[in-house]
Amino acid sequence: MIYDTASFLINLKLMFTVYILYSAKFNQIYIGYTSDLPNRFLSHNELATKGHTIKYRPWVIAHTEEFETKTEAIKRENYLKSTLGRKFARNIIREKFGSSDG
User: Fold this and answer.
1) Quick check: is 67 in a domain?
2) DSSP states along 24-49
3) CA-to-CA distance for 70 and 17, rounded, in angstroms?
């Protein structure tokens, strides 16, 4: 089937991903959101030259959640950065990587 560009763009949905990164070397977590997870992850691990995450490389993706709107993603990101949300994140880390709380 052949699609014209306009039809393709109309049907293309931009999704937003909330993600939890984990640095086993430093037992650190990082929570963020993006509309381009592969490039954002590359930035955290290799491309960025300043910022919080460069100090704790390497990172692995511990958890992701998809949202249709930026507003929903930001709301979830903010929750995950709260005390209860960080507890949720640490539980995921413990289940997947066997890490202790830190």
Assistant:
1) yes
2) TTTTEEEEEEES-HHHHHHIIIII-S
3) 9
Residues 6+ apart with CB under 8 A from 21: 29, 30, 31, 32, 41, 44, 53, 59, 60, 61, 62
Nearest-angstrom CA–CA distance, 29 and 100: 12
| In contact, 57 and 42? CB cutoff 8 Å | no
Whether residue 7 lies inside any domain: the answer is no
**Residue 97 in this model has a pLDDT that exceeds 60:** yes
pTM score, two decimals?
A: 0.85
Domain extent at residue 70: 14-97
Strand partners, 19: 32, 64
Asked whether 25 and 60 are in contact (CB, 8 A), the reply is: no
Summarize pLDDT for 28-83 with one digit per residue, the tens: 999 999 999 999 999 999 999 999 999 999 999 999 999 999 999 999 999 999 99
**For position 42, what pLDDT does the model report?**
97
Number of domains in the chain: 1
